[in-house]
Amino acid sequence: MIELFIALGAGLISFLSPCVLPLIPGYISFISGQSLNELIESKKVNLIPLLLFSLGFSFVFIIFGAAASALGKILLQNSNYLRVVAGTIIVIFSLQLLGVINIKFLNYEKKYYTKKSTKPLFVFIVGMAFGFGWTPCIGPILGSILALASTEENISRGIIMLSFYSLGLAIPFILSGFLIQKFLLFSKNFKKNINIVLKLGGITLLLTGVLIITNKLQSLGYYILEIFPFMQSLG
Fold it and tell me: Which residues, other chains included, contact 53 with Cβ-Cβ below 8 Å and sequence gap of 6+?
């Protein structure tokens, strides 16, 4: 249970990261077939392209999650070693977010350039392309969730975990397009707080990695369920 909330929060932090948040208006403009000025004047965009784009990048991340879980299942006979390795990877990624270390390829971003089109299949494919393009840029965060997914006992859990991660990205993205004027104002005012969010995300991932290495993550989950028993129905 705790893993799902970590994944959801990681998706939100990915959305708020410096390499995603400032580009959101451009993505929305591209898939809606409207200029930014036209979007501002209309105040909101068609919901369908936003959903299809979100489904596109979610599909990519969920495939990654299934692959990570499948690999973890193959290595299940060495589950203790896998847990330590996964926790160590998360710790390394968290230190990258906190600025303690600097692994250059984790700051890499791949960009794709295509002609505008609002056809459903095209928008879905563009969402997939941007999912692959975002992957290197949000590497420390996504990599941590994939490492966490690799410790799951079955593939379905990895799929669910990356679905929650995708929701953390998709929900604010859809709301941003639906409330474009308010989003532009929020984005402008939020820029000065981006580093704070990344630091908090880094600390959360660091604690998660340490708990995984020490095999205490499930204990934290049980403790949270004691405080919030209604969450048992979400498991």
Answer: 27, 31, 123, 124, 126, 127, 130, 173
